């Protein structure tokens, strides 16, 4: 299915466009065995059509802005350009795209291709049953979603050695002229959310849950019970992601040491009298 909607919000008008797709297919289905594959995905993009007061742009905090014709949730930052190999100082681009060593909030630009909402998300899995055995699994994913990794900014900041443990990334810090690295020289603090240095891809693929169960039926149990099902459930077994931090999954635009989604193991019983 697909389509678009136009919403009247407190910012004016926001148009959403996208589609959803779900499929399910039985590879095997007979009296004793079923093998089923399923998947779903959703693609969504939006565009600000109007801002109240007939404004073209409204600047919010350090990292956000509203602009007619732009997507909601796009990041608004000065673009990080790396480290000067001559002296180890941070480099940036100004609003016109020129290289500079000056951090300036007036040089922030809207990054239309980087938003806090995923362009693509969904899940897929496999369901298998054979006689009294059953195996189910579910993977979930988000693609092309961006967040500011503020926690990484703290543990890579040489000026906070007395406050926070440091990442091994600081071992790459610039030390002498000619060094090519992404880490400024020790003692330089550069963790501002107004700069795109810590804006990172938070796409992920996660094994959300997998469950294995066995059902003892009435023929095995006699007249005392109709059935007893025993199962082992594992949740969040692994996550594949480029995100450096506890957890890429969040509805926040910035990460700062949030407690991650836990890995959980459960043994359960379902008894039917």
Question: Can you offer a commentary on this structure?
Answer:
This protein has 273 residues and is mainly β. The protein has helices at residues 150-155, 218-221, and strands at 2-9, 12-29, 33-51, 57-59, 65-67, 74-77, 80-83, 90-93, 99-100, 109-115, 120-130, 133-143, 146-149, 199-201, 204-216, 227-235, 239-241, 254-255, 264-272. A hairpin with a 2-residue loop joins strand 11 (120-130) and strand 12. The longest helix is centred in the middle third of the chain and has 6 residues, at 150-155.
- Total helical elements: 2
pLDDT < 50 stretches: 2-7
Query: What's the shape?
Result: elongated
Measured distance between first and last alpha carbons? 43 Å
Helix content: under 10%
Structural class by sheet pairing and helices: mainly beta
Helix/strand order: EEEEEEEEEEEEEHEEHEEEE
Oligomer: single chain
Radius of gyration: 25 Å
| Estimated share of beta-strand residues | over 45%
What's the pLDDT, averaged over the residues? 89
β-strand number? 19
* Main pleated-sheet profile: 9 strands, antiparallel
Keywords:
273 residues, 4% helix, 2 helices, mainly beta, 19 strands, 9-stranded antiparallel beta sheet
Short description:
With 273 residues, the chain is mainly beta.
SSE order and pairing:
Layout: E1 2-9, E2 12-29, E3 33-51, E4 57-59, E5 65-67, E6 74-77, E7 80-83, E8 90-93, E9 99-100, E10 109-115, E11 120-130, E12 133-143, E13 146-149, H1 150-155, E14 199-201, E15 204-216, H2 218-221, E16 227-235, E17 239-241, E18 254-255, E19 264-272
Parallel strand pairs: 13-18
Antiparallel strand pairs: 1-2, 2-3, 3-11, 4-5, 6-10, 7-8, 8-9, 11-12, 12-15, 13-14, 15-16, 15-17, 16-19
């Amino acid at each position: 299915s697909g389509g678009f909607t136009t919403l009247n919000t407190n910012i004016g008008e926001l148009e959403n466009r996208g589609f959803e797709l779900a499929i399910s297919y039985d590879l095997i289905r007979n009296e004793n065995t079923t093998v089923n594959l399923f998947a779903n995905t959703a693609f969504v993009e939006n565009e600000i059509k109007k801002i109240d007061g007939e404004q073209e742009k409204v600047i919010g905090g350090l990292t956000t802005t509203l602009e007619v014709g732009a997507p909601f949730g796009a990041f608004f930052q000065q673009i990080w350009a790396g480290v000067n190999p001559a002296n180890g100082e941070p480099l940036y681009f100004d609003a016109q795209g020129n290289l500079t060593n000056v951090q300036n909030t007036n040089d922030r630009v809207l990054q239309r291709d980087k938003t806090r909402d995923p362009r693509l998300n969904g899940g897929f899995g496999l369901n298998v049953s054979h006689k009294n055995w059953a195996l189910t699994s579910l993977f979930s994913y988000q693609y092309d979603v961006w967040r500011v990794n503020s926690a990484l900014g703290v543990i890579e900041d040489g000026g906070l050695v007395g406050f926070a443990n440091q990442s091994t990334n600081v071992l790459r810090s610039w030390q002498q002229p000619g060094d090519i690295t992404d880490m400024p020289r020790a003692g330089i603090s550069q963790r501002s959310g107004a700069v795109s240095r810590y804006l990172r891809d938070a796409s992920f693929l996660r094994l959300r849950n997998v469950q294995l169960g066995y059902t003892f039926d009435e023929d095995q149990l006699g007249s005392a019970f109709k059935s007893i099902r025993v199962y082992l459930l594992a949740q969040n077994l692994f996550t594949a992601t480029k995100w450096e931090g506890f957890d890429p999954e969040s509805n926040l635009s910035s990460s700062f040491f949030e407690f991650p989604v836990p890995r959980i193991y459960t043994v359960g019983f379902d008894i039917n009298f």
